[in-house]
Amino acid sequence: MSRQAERIYRRRRLVNVVALVLSGTAALFGLAMLCWILWTTISKGAAALSPHLFLLPTAPPGEPGGLANALVGTVLICLSAVAWATPLGILAGTYLAEYANYTRRGATIRFVNDILLSAPSIVLGLFVYTLVVRPMEQFSMFAGVLALGFIVLPVVVRTTDEMLRMVPTQMREAALSLGIPQWKVTTQVLYRAARSGITTGVLLGLARISGETAPLIFTNTNNQYWSTSPFAPMSNLPMTIYEYAKSPFEDWQQLAWAGALLVTAFVLLISVTARLLILKNKTSHD
């Protein structure tokens, strides 16, 4: 090996070692921060876990209370948002994959959907505030559901589009050659093949809105009492955590930590389920 080649070899090894050390340090730093956040949430949240947390509604400072109304309100708001955004997202994703796949119109819609997918949630909250809250002059569950649905919608559109395009073309051609109408091929063949992926998109959308606070500040706000009216503010966990965490009362702060632990555990459960579905879908396509 000549002297020049040996110099180049040593320089590349040095650059490789430096890059390896820097990337490894960054990974360890990120992992340490994540473990720190999880440990703080678990240690402080677990201390406030009790049956009262799930049975009693929120109460004034110093009185026994829980998060029952906030938990029920969060479930209603999130499921309602998923309920209206999921069918619309599946239909839009189906149109992109099956009818506008290689058209300029389809590319434009995908571009707009990607912008909506990466839009900050607070911007969507402000949009719904202008569209619904100001004309109605009332914060409401309806406005909150609309804002959270706008977060779920692009996720479902994107996953439905990608999952349907992953279905082999031969499967479509085989079904169409038997004289089956296009809509039956889509609903009874393609949807079955892409079912795991579409379900994963819905779960990821649900996980994303479970802890969203910013859109609710401008649309639903919060309610200290039980309410099931869609045209009035409804109690919810993210806003309760936000308000209790910054309060000076220790019992409210403990409830905020318990709420944060519940949200973290729920998002972790949904994320693991979505990953398992992705793995199952990938295995079935291999």
TrEMBL record:
Topological relation to the membrane, as annotated: Multi-pass membrane protein
Subcellular localization(s) per the UniProt record: Cell inner membrane; Cell membrane
Signal sequence residues: none
A GO MF label: phosphate transmembrane transporter activity
InterPro entries (UniProt xref): MetI-like, MetI-like_sf, Phosphate_PstA, Phosphate_transprt_permease
Superkingdom in the source lineage: Bacteria
Similarity comment: Belongs to the binding-protein-dependent transport system permease family. CysTW subfamily.
NCBIfam families: 3a0107s02c (TIGR00974)
Descriptive protein name: Phosphate transport system permease protein PstA
Gene it is expressed from: pstA
